[in-house]
Each structure stands twice: as structure tokens, then as C-alpha cells.
């Protein structure tokens, strides 16, 4: 009996050490995001959104002391450069592409997305194929997936109005100063509503990419820690928390 108790004690101690190490690893990460509603955004009083709440649930599952108060909201281009140059960092939400894949370690996907060309209804913009993309001007966020997808399809920066904030692109589109916006479709429509405009006044002219959103970690992040984050995401999906979060924003 004494040997059994000793073995149980050793097992409990080992598990405790493992859990502490996992939490410590997560606690060492600096989490960065951008203004990208409904996925992640600062609503004026706190950082919130689908991606934020999912990550918060994952960190809780891992035993981490990190909370949403520890998440920084930065311009996308700034966060994108920082997560490539500074170890122990994570940027979200990021669309996985072939070009980006080797630059980071990835956890996800946690939601499917469409990167689309959004136009004002009645604008006359007609895009039947990628060959038509070069005919128009686009509002884009610097280093965002929309900008990358346009460039990959041969659209030069001369056809892009590059900004750091989406609201300025929406104003330009509404006033006819640009032909379209290249951005994530759900986020675009969500932000159109936030500005008081009517989503019925806008059309999806073309889908540049169907993809998924991920948490992107600096490439030197240990694989074991990435696996623990992925396991936590899978658990959050399986226990019902994930669906409750989605329903609270998208229903």
C-alpha cells in the first residue's frame, strides 16, 4: 500500500509540474491583435470579439493567468512585423496562406472566412475573374490578407489606397473615392453596420480567397507549446464553449 501511495504521489507531482510548465509557457507569450470586428476589437472599454473570447477560454483551459486585459490592440502592420521579429509573441486573427505558412507557428483554424472584394451597390464594378481585378481601385489595410491577395493576382500598389484603419476605407467607398474594398467579408459587413450604414447598399463582387483564421506565433515558439494551445482549442470546441461564443456574435 505504501508503494502504491508513493506512486500516486509521484504521479500527482509529475502532473502538477507539467501543468505548471504549460501555464508558464502560455504566460510568457505576448498576445497582440488588431481592430477586426467581430473577431477581435477594442469596444472602448475592453478587448473583445470571437477570437478574443476563444483564446481566453483556451488560456483558462491551460491554467494560464493571462486574461483579455493582457491583449494589446495594434495596427496590423505593426503587429505583423513584431510577431516576425520578437520571440514569445502571438498575433491574431491571421489567415493562413502558402506565403505566410513558413513564417509562423499556427494554432487553428477556429473559424472559416472569405476574403472578398466589397463594392457599393450600383457602382458598375464587375469582376468575373482575377483578370478583371486590375481595372479597379481598392481600399486595403497595409500587410493585410486583402492586400496580399490583390498583389498575388497582379494588382499593383498604384491601384491600392493603403491605410491603417478600416473605417477610413469604408468612408472612401461610400463617397465613391475608391471602387472597392478588399477585406474579410464578415468583418466588413459588421463594420458597415457599426458605422450606421446599411449592408444592403453593398455587394460582394468577388471572393479572393476562402480561408480560416488562426493564432500565429513567432516561429521559434516550442512545438510542444503550440501543441498545448491546439489541444486547448480542440477542447474548447468540444465542450460547447466555442459554439456559445460564435452564437453570441453571429446569431
Automatic annotation (TrEMBL):
The keyword Ligase appears for this protein: no
Keywords for the protein's UniProt record, in alphabetical order: Signal
SMART domains, sorted: PBPb
Pfam families on file: SBP_bac_3
Domain Solute-binding protein family 3/N-terminal intervals: 28-251
Signal peptide range in chain numbering: 1-23
InterPro entries per the UniProt record, alphabetical: Solute-binding_3/MltF_N (IPR001638)
Annotated protein name in UniProt: Extracellular solute-binding protein family 3
